[in-house]
Amino acid sequence: MTDFSDLKGNWEETRGKLRQIFDTLAEEDLDYVDGKQDELWSRIQLKVGKSKAEIQGILSGL
Question: Which of 1, 23, 60, 61 could make an SS bond with 6 (beta carbons 3.0 to 4.6 A apart)?
């Protein structure tokens, strides 16, 4: 996955995977709002301590 648009189509599935992988993420950390993708990535990165590229790599490997 190279772009958030790849995630958006399957967001509920991706959201579940992120919660399984990173137990520090709360439901509200993963709330998707159209046009606020950068804020979503920032919340996820802050909570898990990984870069966007690292997170995308982990998701791509699933």
Answer: 1
Q: What is the pLDDT, as a whole number, of residue 20?
A: 93
> What is the per-residue burial (b if ≥16 Cβ within 10 Å, else e) of 25-51?
beeebbeeeeeeeeebbebbeeebeee
pLDDT of residue 2: 44
Q: DSSP of the chain, one letter per residue?
A: --SHHHHHTTHHHHHHHHHHH-TT--GGGG---TT-HHHHHHHHHHHHT--HHHHHHHHHT-
User: Tokens for 15?
Assistant: 């959201």
